[in-house]
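Hi support team,

I submitted a single chain yesterday and got back a structure, but I'm not sure I'm reading the token output correctly. Could someone confirm the output below corresponds to the sequence I sent? I've pasted both exactly as they appear in my results page.

Thanks,
R.
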Amino acid sequence: MRFLGKIHNSPASVRVAPFVIFVLLTALQGKFGAVSAFWVYFAKTLVGAWLIWEMRPFVTEMRWVVSWEAVLVGTGIFALWVGISGEWTTQNSLWVKLGVSHLPEKTVAVWNPNNEFGAGSTLAWLFIAVRILGSTFIVPPLEEVFYRSFLYRYIASQNFLAVPLNKYLPTPFFVTAFVFGISHNEWLAGILCGAAFQWLVIRKNRLGDAMTAHAITNLLLGIWVVTRGAWQFW
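Hi R., thanks for writing in. Yes, this is the structure output for that exact sequence:
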């Protein structure tokens, strides 16, 4: 029996439960020692792939689509993400400067397997590959289904399936972009990213272009991280 078989009659649950499971696994990274950050990510990626497989029969809009708009947006968001990074655009710096946090600013823990396993080691390259593949092929479907298919439309109506994907609604648009943004350390780039992906869904009346754009952004960012040593983005 499929894992989602018991909740497939709930359109909301079948879109939310996999995302929540993925987020909970993310929260466990590094909780069992520094090395666990990498092994939990590895396990999370495998679980994420399984969840996507389980979702496919019940979430019909979760289908990859390649378009020139998706390529343009995905590439543009990558350039924006690395281009506007700065001290005040990260959450830690933001909360301190706003007076919400009184803790001194600190460097966010860097996800760098070279430091843990040795540069060029087999394990280091394994986890780098898993991170790039996971962020490219696993994260986009799970996040786009939750944010763009569910949350955006649910804010508009509890009967969210009755809300067309191509309907622009100001409040859901900006709330979803904001929530998506603050779920990332680079909050400003995240908000703009969420708005761009939502625009794609509205423009194309489907989810697949946003999934592709999301994948392109994450793939290019992963390559940038590894080739430039910009591990702070991970």
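A quick pointer for reading it: The chain has nine helices and no strands. Let us know if anything else looks off.

Best,
Support desk
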